[in-house]
Design a protein that fits this description.
about 450 residues; alpha/beta; 7-stranded parallel β-sheet; 6-stranded parallel β-sheet; 17 helices; binds uridine-5'-diphosphate
Length: about 450
């Protein structure tokens, strides 16, 4: 489009509708996108389930529409009930989304501010068809990595090649079709339905926005682009445009930061497994002893719901806090962005959720990887074997944990990893500056949204 024509179009303010999946790792990037697009002059309407909504009063510049989802409020979501919650949302929210779009579109018809499009999470199976019934253009926000998407898109081919059902005996064998993945990184068949939905909803959309950067996933982005007729916009790292801890569903404990202030530079291991992973009591105790025996300072997020049945922070062995003393701090939820950027933090023991992965890369903090489910094994494989910026925790015994922590935090063993992740940190900074890859991509996205 010609420059003059585009600037005419830009004079008309447009509304963008955003529809995040109500999981912490999906809500945060969608709210980041809301802030980014708002700063570009769009009016933003957030369509959110009542379930797991951040507090709208933290976002006075956004308009909210809530969907009645029929789910119990304030229930703790864990990976154990993920499928139930997702399918309840998929079946309960179709009509509420239809009603909501109908209301927004009729209001927009009279207020001179056209609705450009709906940007939905591609895990919603119904957002595409509902938007289509209103002739409303729809894009998706891919909150995970593009390397994981390449795998999801390849599942029919991998099934044909005989990888499924997965065989434990073959877990350590490579998957030559998708290096550097191993058989154990592939998702089990029970997850294939939801992954196929994600692929279909993405491919049927009119454009893909993703929280990644060319400098990290150029090959995966180019591969996905070959199978999608509409543009892909890698605009990450999205949390770096503005910090929105306000989109946190749990309250971050800011004493984490005052405690970090008392620790020497690069000595603290930050430990967090994100918002929905679950561990057993035995695993918790092995972690506790591994951390204590490593003699390394640690900040450990023990989230309510980290164990299915018990409040884990009450399960610590008698005398544990005396043994650990000031060297260890346990919190229910941390201000993770501030923690990772704190000079005292030297390593991150992570479940390798995509947001945590990107956030750690942006601060140059090498990772100890313990993936649990979904895309985490794929992310961990790329962290350890492709980008080589982290170590894999192979066995969850206290001895193994202790030696892995020592290896990650000691200068000698992790020196090269630190050099590599510092280089990525620099690239992640540069890509957001004028002429950088994500900066350019956001410019393209803004023009695209204006032309829809
Ligand atoms: N997070 C946080 N405090 C914590 C743990 C996590 O603010 O104590 C944030 C973290 O910064 C990230 C998100 O929660 O943005 C978790 O997303 P991720 O994709 O890493 O994992 P998920 O929760 O989806 O498994």
């Amino acid at each position: 489009m010609e420059g003059e024509e585009m600037s005419q179009l830009r004079k008309v303010r447009r509304k963008i509708l955003l529809f995040p999946l109500p999981l912490q790792g999906h809500v945060i990037p969608m709210f980041n996108l809301a802030n980014i697009l708002h700063s570009k002059g769009f009016s933003i309407i957030l369509i959110h389930t009542r379930y797991n909504s951040p507090d709208p009063t933290h976002f006075p510049h956004l308009t909210f529409h809530f969907l009645e989802d029929g789910l119990p409020q304030n229930s703790r979501l864990t990976s154990n009930d993920l499928t139930t919650v997702l399918s309840a949302i998929q079946s309960n929210c179709v009509q509420p989304l239809q009603d909501c779009l109908s209301q927004i579109l009729s209001a927009a018809a009279t207020d001179q501010e056209p609705v450009a499009c709906l940007i939905s999470d591609p895990m919603y199976s119904f957002a595409g068809s509902v938007a289509q019934s209103f002739n409303l253009p729809r894009m998706v926000l891919r909150t995970g990595g593009m390397s994981a998407f390449v795998l999801y898109d390849s599942l029919p081919m991998l099934r044909q090649n005989g990888y499924f059902p997965l065989q434990v005996a073959k877990f350590d064998e490579p998957v030559p079709e998708l290096p550097p993945l191993k058989v154990k990184d592939l998702p089990p068949e029970v997850q294939h339905g939801i992954l196929a939905t994600t692929v279909k909803e993405t491919k049927n959309s009119q454009g893909v926005i993703c929280n990644t950067l060319e400098e990290l996933e150029d090959y995966a982005i180019a591969t996905v682009q070959q199978s999608i007729p509409y543009p892909i916009f890698p605009i990450g790292p999205m949390h770096k445009y503005s910090q929105t801890s306000a989109a946190s569903i749990l309250q971050p404990d800011h004493t984490s930061l005052s405690w970090l202030n008392t620790q020497p530079p690069k000595t603290v291991l930050y430990v967090s497994f994100g918002s929905i992973a679950v561990i057993s009591e035995t695993e918790f105790l092995e972690m506790a002893w591994g951390l204590a025996n490593s003699r390394q300072p640690f900040l450990w997020v023990v989230r309510p719901g980290l164990s299915k049945d018990s409040e884990l922070s009450e399960m610590l062995p008698v005398g544990y806090s005396q043994i650990v003393g000031e060297r260890g701090k346990i919190v229910k939820w941390a201000p993770q962005l501030e923690v990772l950027s704190h000079p005292a933090v030297g390593g991150f023991w992570t479940h390798c959720g995509w947001n945590s992965t990107v956030e750690s890369i942006c601060e140059g903090v090498p990772m100890l990887c313990l993936p649990f489910f979904a895309d985490q094994a794929i992310n961990a494989r790329h962290i350890c074997d492709n980008w080589k910026i982290g170590l894999r925790l192979e066995k969850k015994t206290r001895e193994n944990i202790e030696s892995a922590i020592t290896k990650l935090m000691a200068d000698g063993d992790s020196a090269e990893m630190r050099i590599r992740i510092t280089a990525f940190k620099e690239k992640a900074k540069l890509c957001l500056q004028k002429d950088g890859s994500s900066y350019e991509s956001l410019e393209r996205l803004t023009n695209y949204l204006t032309s829809l």
